[in-house]
Every structure is written in C-alpha cells, then in structure tokens.
Amino acid sequence: MEYKFRHDIHANEIVLLAYYIAAINIESTYHSLMKGEYIPFKHIGLTDTFRMLEEKNLLQKLFKDNSEYLEHQKKLDIKVIFGNPPYSSGQRSANDNNTNVEYEILDRSIQNTFALKSQATLKRNLYDSYIRAIRWASNRLSSQGGIVAYISGNGWVDKAFADGMRKCLRNEYSSIYIINLRGDIRKNIKSKELSKEGGNVFGSGSQNGIAVTIFVRNPNKKQPCEIYYHDIGDNLSTEKKLEMLQYFDSIGGITREDGWKIITPDEHGDWLHQRDNNFETFLAIGDKKPHSKKLFETFSLGVVTNRDAWTYNASREALAKNMSNMITFYNSEVERFNNAYGHVDRRIRTKAVNDFVDTDERKISWSYNVKQELIRGKIFELEDRCLVQSLYRPFTKQWLYYNRAFNERVLQMPRIFPMGKVVENMVIQVTGTGTQAGFSVLMSKDLPNLHAIDTGQCFPRYIYEDTTVSKDKNKKQSHLFLISTEESKTAGLQKRDAITNEGLEHFKAAYPNETITKDDLFYYVYGILHSEDYRSRYADNLSKELPRIPCVKNADDFWKFVTAGRELGHLHVNYETVEPYPVTFKKGNPKQTEISNPEKFYYVTEMKFAKAGKEKDKSTVIYNSNITITDIPLKAYAYIVNGKPALEWVMGRQCVKTDKKSGIVNDANRYAVETVGNPAYPLELFQRVITVSLETMKIVKNLPKLEIRETE
C-alpha cells in the first residue's frame, strides 16, 4: 500500500483550491488505512489534463516543481484511469466572455475517430468535456491493457450524435460495462415524467442523465468487445439509486443478481433502442447529401436568434423599441471599438473584442455573429420590414425581428419565408434528432422558431428564389441569395414546388391508376406523421434520424391519409379562426357581465389550473381574477405536441413574463390588443385550441391501420 501511495497513484486538478483539497483527501484516506507516520502526497499536478497533450501549457511554466512532476507523469505507462469529468465546457452566451476552450491535438483525435465514424449531421456535442475525457483516456491508457472508470453524462450511450463514438469504443476496448443511472431532469420535464428518469444521483448538482462506465482493455482477448448494460430502473429516487449502488458494490454484484444485459450493436452504431431496418426502404423526407432520392428538395431548422428576449415579443411596438435600443447601443460600441482599435489589423481586433465590449445584458445580447459584425465595423439601423410574425411555440405567435445580423442562424429560411417580403407558404415542422420530448409534428403558415417544435426541421410547400435578369444576355437566372451588382437587376421572386419530381414519380409508380399532385403528397406526409402506428413502430428510428415516408398498401388508404392530413393541416394552420369550444363560465361569463373596460376585464398574467385537494383539476382553469372556466373536456389534453398538451402551451404562453437578464417584459395581452384588436384573444385562443385538440385526436384515432406496401 505504501509503495502504491508513494509511486503509483497520480492525480490532476485545474483549480487551485480543488488541487489542495484533493491532495488532503488522498492523504487522509491513506492515513486512515495505514496509520503511522504522516506522508504527504506528492503526485498531484496543477494542470488542465487535456492541455498536457498540447504544445503549450501555461500552468506548467508558472511552477517549476509542478512542471517537473507533469513531465514525469507524461512518461508513465498508465494502467488505470478513473474520475468524474466535467460534462460540458465553454460559454452559454457570448455575454459571458468565456470563450469555448479548444484543444487542437485532442480535438483532432476526436475528429479522426468519433466524428469520422459518425453519420450524424450535428457533431458539436462530441466536443463536450466528458466526451473529450473518454477520448483522452483511451489515448492515454497503456497499450498493454488497463481500465478506465468514469461517472459521467450518459448521452453518449444512446444519442444519435455519438454513433461514431460507440463504433470506435467497441474497437478500442475488450469489455465495456455501463450502469445507466438515468436522472435526466430536462427529459423528465419535457416528457411530463413519461420518461421515468427518476432522481439524479447528484441531487440538484446536475440535470444531466448519469452513467457509470468501466472500459476494460485486454490485448490478449481476441474476441469482439463485450458490452454489458444495466439500467438502474424506472422512477427511482436519488436515495434509492445510491442505495442500490452500495448494495451491488461492484461489477460482480450486478453479475450475481443476473443484472447485466448483453448488447449486440447494430450497423448504425446503436446499442440501445435499435432501429427498424425496414425504415431505410422508405423514401427520405429530405436529405442534404447531393443526388440523394428524397421527397423535399430542401429543408431547414427554424430561426435561431440566440437572443429571443430581444428579437421576439408579443408586441410589435415593444419589439421595435427593444431592438432599436440594442442597435443604438451596438453602434456606440462599434464607434468606441473603432476609436481604440481602428488602425490595427483584423487579427488584433478579433483578439481584443471579447475583453473590450460592454456585456451589460440590459443593454445588449452579444453572440459570435454580432461580435463579428462589430469587428468589421458594421453599423446598423432598425428596419421596419424585418418586423414579422413568427410561430414561436405551438399555437403561439410572436413578433420577430427577422434579420441576418441579429438572428444567429437563419439557414435556409430566406428561401422559405423571404426577408422583407410577404409570401404565402406552409411548412411541416418535425422534431430534430436527439429530442428529449419524443417525436412531434406541426404545420404552420408562419416563420417558425427553432423550438416551435423541439430543434425542429421545417419542410416547406414552396421555395422562393430571387430571379435576376442579366443586362448583357437578357436571360433570367435564379439565385439563392441575390447580390445586387451593376450587371443585374431584380425581376422579382420565383415560386416553385419544394416537393421533388422524383418524389412525385415515386408515389405515382406505387399507385399507377391514381392522379396524384404535389399538394396531395404534402398532406399525405402530414397524415402519415400523425399515425400512432407509424410513431410507435418507428419510434427508435425517429429518435435518431429524420422521418422516411412509406407507401401504404393500397390507394384507398393513401387517400385516407391525404384527406386526414389536409383536415389536420387546416386545423393547425388556421387555429386562430376555428370555432371556440363552449366552456362553462364558473365566474365572469362575458355574455352575462357588463364589461366597461374589456382590456382590464380580459387581462391575463398567468392561467392556472384549479385544485382538487392537492391535485390539479384540469377541467377547470382560473384565467384571471375575473374569469374562471370549467367543463374543459379532459380528453382535450390527449393532444400532445412538442412534449406537452397543446392546451398547456397556450396556458404557458398567454401570460406576462419578464426576462431576468435583460429586464424585457413580454406581455401576451399586447398581441391581443395591438395585433388582433381583441382583448379576449387569449381566452378565445384557449377555447379554440380545445376544439383543435379534440378534432385532432378524432382524426388521428380514425386513421387507417398502417400497412406498408411489400415492394418497399
């Protein structure tokens, strides 16, 4: 034991206080076991462990003894690595001025392994700190064999972004043991507890799902990697999970209880919730790969602003004022920055900007893009044409400042809802991969936010492109993003189908005796995506990839899905004009009340459910101090969209909220009065969405059973 303590145990810490605490804890643990003379623990380094691989390590330069020890540590043949790595790194907001840390060598290793083997579109989560720690440990562990044991985030075990990581780890280790402790608090919230995640083993210290993973490398073992998996169980409290871990005590304890499930990975790199391979035979709804067969020519994430409190508001007037104030402050920062760094090159300006700008969140919300505009010295003014209506959340419209400079990512949206133009279009927005709230879909005629449907991908009915006329050749040309030059002039917008000809031919071939249009296909997709059979049968596929659209067995069912999709689309797009459900007014019936001041009478700050003892009574909603409605049919809450009942989206958004960081007030009543011209709009919206919910579920329940054509 003494030899191990003096020679074989090593530790690193990056924070000075944690460095001293770790050393003391190791020393006290040793002396509680060994007694006798006090021996200080000397094999601990003050360092960023990941930075040890890089050419430069500032901490090593600061302390000579520390530097010498770290050089010694780097030469050791490490057989065991264990720890609790941080789960994420870097800044949440550009106002933090906490630039995301980059590790050139380690990140290149991730790029050449985990990322290279991945089929995922978005791979940024592969650079989270705990993923870096797993990559670092595998690189650092002795080639002669050893063990890595981590308690870390559990996202890598099943999420789509980590498919390549799972493929690599399977080749790098001989055995992997995973104890999934679950406890993903966000997933619990978004799924309304249906995910059964239970408590987090770190209590309030973490909201991420947690796993204990033991990676074993045995170079003498020639068989494929064996993967053992244990799920701690549904809805267990923090205390119960810790109790079970103490009971198991070791890998052997779980083995004795016959608690391991042996995982056989599939070709996708899925270990859990493996996909139905028949899904691949269906037509892709969309695909970014060139020359791929797909139904929609293009698709896009919803608008990403990175400053929703500033760029969204229920009031057009308030939005214009907020953005005007922010733009004015931004311009003053440009002037101040130019005065200080106006005569230096871009490299120096880029390096200086983070420490220079005023990060007062009541004046501005910075982001990478806006800082880049400041570096370029770009001045802006408020543009009235950028004030547009947007679907912010299900059945909730807000005003948006739709602008490339102050929206962090507009992506393909200008081809779907062109900036500064009034056009007619519809999109089918589906949940993106890796969502925590389950699959969802919603049709809209308004420009959608990224999270109108969680991380939503939008498939449009039409594409709009600017058409220019060449002065030299008098020939029209289409451009995705028009650049004004002396050689061309704007000829207007060109509108065309977003559904591909090959997609149409695919379905015409399946039903040769039918006359099918692209409109029919648009609504067929919407009908299919509402099928409960489809969602349950392909749930694992839908959690990891975009939908694929099957041909149903016969033409009769095809037309039933088209009709249902059209009816659902009409309900969801025109939700503001459907007939309000006739609730009972327990208090404040407008027809029986003399209303001298409608704005005051209908003013809502927060809708609440009534209480039946300690439980919520969802049949009754307290709208405000004047109005209480009851006899709300409970089956209306069965319509779940984006993780919760549509009615609860209305309740949660028709309110008055103040953003803590900026102090900006977002008052839904102002949309009712200023935009709709009806102070009763929030109340009537709730009633209308009852109708939408009931009718939606009626249509969904009457969809035909999903029977797929055998030829696919």
Architecture overview:
The chain has 25 helices and 29 strands. It has about 700 residues and is of the alpha+beta class. The chain has 4 domains: about 1-75, no CATH class; about 80-275, Rossmann fold; about 300-495, no CATH class; about 585-700, no CATH class. Strand 1 (about 10-15), helix 2 and strand 2 (about 45) form a beta-alpha-beta unit. The longest helix is centred in the middle third of the chain and has 26 residues, at about 315-340. Residues about 480-490 have low confidence and may be disordered. This is Putative helicase. One of its GO terms (biological process) is DNA modification.
Quick recap:
By secondary structure, the protein is α+β, with helices and mostly antiparallel strands.
Morphology: globular
Lateral strand order in the biggest sheet: 3-4-6-5-7-8
Cα separation of the termini: 65 Å
Query: Mean pLDDT score, rounded?
Result: 91
Residue windows where pLDDT falls under 50 for at least 5 positions: 480-490
Number of strands: 29
Summed up, the domain count is: 4
InterPro entries: DNA_methylase_N6_adenine_CS (IPR002052), MethylTrfase_TaqI-like_dom (IPR011639), SAM-dependent_MTases_sf (IPR029063), Type_ISP_LLaBIII_C (IPR041635)
Keywords: ATP-binding, Helicase, Hydrolase, Nucleotide-binding
Protein name: Putative helicase
Domain Type II methyltransferase M.TaqI-like: 55-181
